[in-house]
Amino acid sequence: MNALIIEDEKLTADRLNKLIQEHTSISVVETFYSVKSAIQWLHKNECPELLFLDIQLGDGTGFDVLDSLKSYPQVIFTTAFDKYVLDAFKYNSVDYLLKPVKGEELISAIEKLRKVRSQGDIDTIMSNLKSQLQGEYKKKFLIKTGQKFKSVPVEEIAYFYSESSTSYLRTLTGESLIIDHSLDDLQKALNPDRYFRINRHMLVCDDHIISIDSYFNNRLLISLKPEFSEQVIVSREKVRAFKDWLDR
Predict the structure, then answer these.
(1) Domain span(s) for CATH 3.40.50.2300 in the chain
(2) 33, 152, 164, 234: most buried by Cβ count inside 10 Å?
(3) Where is the HTH LytTR-type domain positioned along the sequence (predicted)?
């Protein structure tokens, strides 16, 4: 199997190349240190089966390289940052390795790649990888009601809100329960693909937004299910990001 390394730090690229030679049978055809040089080569040559792709490069991102192609090869992302994990799912990503890449991590990534190639089904690997990563997000909330406790899965929660410095969740059945988390903490703990902070007092789930209407002062008025007791307003500074979130 042939591969390219696209990495803007030469020492890191050389180290990765050495690991590939030591632990795999993959042949590295070329190494590029910029978005521009990689794109120029890829537009003149047949794309290899695999890219080892850094995300933050000096003149752009690894995503820029992929967006310049008509179809995506299989990709193993190598990066010093974990904030791009969700973006990586939009591409033909087999694995996402944080620098410095270790030999055992590389071997594991190549084993995933072999499974993809033998099964001819990258969706399976993507689904498994996504499931592992989503384990970082909160799945359940332990709620105390009187002297008893109960666990509420996030799938049964329509939205979160705060009143008088107290945070609540609203279940699909319309029950409001006090939770021991601030909205700031919830915003970090919940999957951002599903939940959005529309103002200082509310986090909503895309599955439970019924309608969206224009509102004065460049804000938005939304209806939720179950219905909230007050008007639900998307603050003016959140409107653009909210629209982008819904238009993914």
Answers:
(1) 2-134
(2) 234
(3) 141-248
